[in-house]
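Before drawing any conclusions, I looked closely at one protein's amino acid sequence and its backbone structure tokens, quoted below without any editing.
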Amino acid sequence: MVPNESELRAHIVELESEHRALETAIHALQETAAQDLFALRRLKKRKLQLKDAIERLRSRLIPDLNA
């Protein structure tokens, strides 16, 4: 089943929310004296995956133009 535009937009909003939450968690973890480098790396990797997923979904919203 192909999601419609409103479903894609809703999914993008969800992913952006998770992306912002990860940004906050990363900053909080970086501020601690005893940084957990493994956890920090894992959060950053997930944040990058979310960014890529958001961009893929946004590109699906752009209509195809037949030149």
